[in-house]
Amino acid sequence: MLTMDRYALMCNEYERLTGVNPNWSTRRHPVVAARHVISLIFKKRYNFTEMKISHVTGVSRSSIYYSIEQATDAVKQGEIIYLDSLETWQRVLSVISFDENSQTFESALRSFIQGYKDAHDASEQAITEALNKYLLQ
Q1: Alpha helix (H) ranges present in the chain?
Q2: Which of 76, 81, 88, 137 is least buried, going by the fewest C-beta atoms within 10 A?
C-alpha cells in the first residue's frame, strides 16, 4: 500500500537522481513535469484513482486530472523533459517499492552489501566474493 511517507521516500530518491524533488512547492518546469509524470504513472500503470493519487501526493484532485492530461499530451509530443522524468520515475520505482515491508531486488542487494560491509569491515573483493556466494545459493 502506497502511503504519503512512502511517496516522500520516492520523491527523495528522485531528487537524489536528478536534483529535483517533486514535493517542492514551486512552478519550475522540471518539478512540475516530475509531478505530472508520477500522476500519469500512478493512473495508467497502477490504476490508481485520482482521489488515491491526490491522497498520496497531497495535491488536489482537480490538479491531478490536469497533471495526467498535461503529461499525456507532453509524452505524445515527445517533450524531452517529460520523457526524461518518465525514465527517472521508472528507475525510482525499480528501487523503492510501494509496500515498505517488501523489497525490490536492487534494494535487497543494497541492504545485503551494506550489512555485510558493516559486519565484516570488508574490502570490495571480500564483498564481491560474499555476493557471489549469496547469489549462487
Answers
A1: 4-18, 29-44, 50-57, 61-76, 80-95, 105-120, 124-135
A2: 137
